[in-house]
Amino acid sequence: MNNNQYDVLINDWDGVDLDNVVDFVCKVRKSYVEENDLTAKVIKERFKSFLSNNPNKILMIKEKSDIVGLSILFENESQTIEVNPGNILGGHPLANEINCLTIKRLILDSIVSYAKKKTISKIEIIAPMIDKETYDKELYNPTGFKTEAQYAEMKLDLSVIVQKTVDYPDAIHLIPLKSIDINKLYDCYYDSFSSGDASFFFNQSEAERREYFDTLGLEEAINESASIGILSEDSGLIGFSIVLPYGEKNCHVSCMSIRTDSKRKGFGKNLLKSIINNAIESGYESITLGTDITMGAFRLYENYGFKTYDAFVSWVYRL
Q1: Which residue among 86, 140, 237, 298 is least crowded, i.e. fewest CB within 10 A of its CB?
Q2: Is the dihedral of CA 111, 112, 113, 115 positive or negative?
């Protein structure tokens, strides 16, 4: 494919000169590279590790022999292409400053053309929510991409938090997550989110919902004391949390779920308080989590002291 003076190449990663790719990334994302004290060697090793362990393609826009645009295409099992996953590439297509918008539009159009030739149902780009309105008007909307979700990364500093008073009814028991069958966890998760306000859930296919659940880190969370199930003597499992170690002295809330018929009865608040208490007792200094900022849970987390430290938007093209 070509567009005037540009050539579009989509290759397997092992057929590409990674040194040229890394040089281009370092030039285009100079500020990010410098802020995070990254070297070309470190970036190359990260590329090699990620590309060799995932089904990826590298899309390059070239002018003569020079790279002027770049994206990594990660094809997952649910027939979705994720564009530029990870922090180094930053989500958005990368392009030289000269003709930047033209090159980025060419990248997106080329990804759509590539996806249409395969059994791909969705293209997703998750990127920092910086100057979102400009990106919408100038890049994504004209190429058919729509905003489907806006995420906040939040953090709670446990050094300024005291343990919370938890008040579960007498018929409720807390049990370790490892004592619960994974299919029962998924049933609870599905029931909870199907009656909730998480836009990402309703935009997923059935296959994508299970695949997403399976990436929440259950194996890593299984022995964490903050990973717990709420068991009712009358109705069985009514809620649970998946909490895993994530960074130095930090734990991450990967999922909180409460069944539909048990919502608005204080179980969500008590579950969050239990997570906080167990994290303090386990010696963690902070808790992180991610949530859609349009969800009611976002306000719950804010009320309990979580602060937003980063935000992302998801642009999606559905085929």
Answers
A1: 86
A2: positive
Structure tokens at 135: 């990106």
C-alpha to C-alpha distance for 61 and 218, rounded to whole angstroms: 39
Helix (H, G, I), strand (E, B) or coil at 242: strand
> What are the φ and ψ backbone dihedral angles of 236, each rounded to 5 degrees?
80, -145
Q: Quick check: pTM over 0.70?
A: yes
Q: CA geometry: angle at 304 spanning 302 and 307, to 5°?
A: 40
Give the Å distances, CA to CA, from 251 to 86, 156, 227, 286: 20, 10, 11, 7
pLDDT tens for the chain, 319 residues: list them: 456 789 999 998 888 899 999 999 999 989 888 888 989 999 999 888 888 777 789 999 999 999 999 999 998 777 889 998 877 787 899 999 999 999 999 999 999 999 999 989 899 999 888 877 778 889 998 999 998 888 999 999 999 999 989 989 889 999 999 999 999 999 999 999 999 999 889 988 898 899 899 999 999 999 899 999 999 988 899 999 999 998 889 999 999 999 999 999 999 999 999 999 999 999 999 999 999 998 999 999 999 999 999 899 989 999 9
Instruction: Write out the H or E segment, with its range, that includes residue 124.
Output: strand 122-128
Show the CA angle centred on residue 116, arms to residues 112 and 117, nearest 5°.
125
Between helix 267-281 and helix 296-303 the angle, nearest 10°, is 50
Question: Alpha-carbon distance 25 to 94, whole Å?
Answer: 8
| Run of H or E including 189 | helix 182-194
CB atoms within 10 A of CB 78: 17
Report the alpha-carbon angle 228-229-231, nearest 5. Answer: 145
